[in-house]
Amino acid sequence: MLNKIKALQEEMDAATASTPEEVDELRIKYISKKGSINQLFADFKHVPAEQKKEVGKAINELKEFALTKINSLKEAFESGAAGTTGLDLTRPGEPVKLGTRHPLSIVKNEIINIFGRLGFTVAEGPEIEDDWHVFSALNFPPEHPARDMQDTFFIEKDPDVLLRTHTSSVQIRVMERTQPPIRAIFPGRVFRNEAISARSHCIFHQVEGLYVDENVSFADLKQTLVYFAKELFGEDSQIRLRPSYFPFTEPSAEMDVSCSICGGEGCNVCKYTGWLEILGCGMVDPNVLEACNIDSKKYTGFAFGMGIERITMLKYGIKDIRHFFENDVRFLKQFESAT
Ligand code: PHE
Q1: Rounded to an integer, what distance in angstroms lies between the CA atom of residue 328 and that of residue 138?
Q2: Which of 28, 100, 163, 267 could make an SS bond with 32 (beta carbons 3.0 to 4.6 A apart)?
Q3: CA of 137 to the centre of ligand 1 (A)
Q4: Is 212 helix (H, G, I), strand (E, B) or coil?
């Protein structure tokens, strides 16, 4: 009798079911009124008195085992964990993890929005350029050091095919095909043959601005930049313009914004000056307008150019420019809420 119980238990242990109907067959076979276990109970009366205790216990344990086994098979089908009949089309889907916007894209879009409110449209130009659009039309003298091999990536041996070193080339492309009024910004990627470090990279992004019309003055440039700084860095931001030099603007200036990290008090980000340099700007040189067949007697304009990496680093307190290009999700995930 004990052997029979043991054999039944092993048989049940190995039993499987591939449909709910098969589970029911197992239930009938083992635990229904006419099932094997009830049969054991019927045979129990023939067990000698001294074995009754042991055998009774074994049958009860077998019954318990059978109930658990059949219930767990049943549950597997009901929860959909087994077979296809458990398919429940009303169950919610598995959540798909969305990516996050890259911090450079977040800041670029913010810049586009700010200038959009001032009526600036967006245009783009090619990354692979020629000498005319990157240098000559922008009034770079033939021997200017920025044309030197150490700044510019040339493509193969042809000195007239190069990667643009700034987005100012798009000024030329736009002015060549459009007569004023022109009011647009040009976001894009630029390339410079520079050693990669925490502060500089051979690939980075700029946003260029250009406004050409009758009577555009330096005062217009300044007011545009004041508005931009307050929108991007906060209402309390101050700007200051320092005289500078670019071949394509005259006069030229560099703009500093009051340090948004210490509020101008002085900290290690602004090197205790209270100011952060963020862009170059100036009045479009008449030679540049003429190179694009725009009448420099009738029209004037201003232009500016800023680095998106630098502004993003200042805005979010990022200490190393290389983070932007490594695509480490632990870095990128931090900008989830800003998206
Ligand atoms: N192209 C300049 C640079 O890359 C920035 C600039 C743009 C300056 C437009 C003046 C006007 O540094």
Answers
A1: 38
A2: 28
A3: 14
A4: strand
C-alpha 58/C-alpha 40 separation (Å) is 10
Beta-carbon contacts of 53 under 8 Å, excluding residues fewer than 6 positions away, are none
Ordered by start, the domain boundaries in the chain are 2-79, 103-338
Q: 254 phi and psi, to 5 degrees?
A: -115, 140
Backbone φ and ψ of 186, nearest 5°: -130, 95
Please give the distance, rounded to the nearest whole angstrom, from the Cα atom of residue 30 to the centre of ligand 1: 86
Ligand 1, residue 165: give the atom nearest the CA: 4
The tokens describing 14, both together, are 């190995």
Q: Are 305 and 168 in contact (CB under 8 A)?
A: yes
Residue 282 CB less than 6 A away from ligand 1: yes
Rg of the chain (C-alpha set)? 38
Cβ atoms 112, 122 nearer than 8 A: yes
Query: Is the CB of residue 310 below 6 angstroms from any atom belonging to ligand 1?
Result: no
Max Cα-Cα span within the chain: 124
85-144: pLDDT as tens digits: 567 888 888 888 888 899 999 999 999 999 999 999 999 999 999 999 999 999 999 888
Q: Determine if ligand 1 sits within 6 Å of the CB of residue 186.
A: no
Is 168 touching ligand 1 by the criterion CB < 6 Å? yes
Is CATH 3.30.930.10 the classification given to domain 103-338? yes
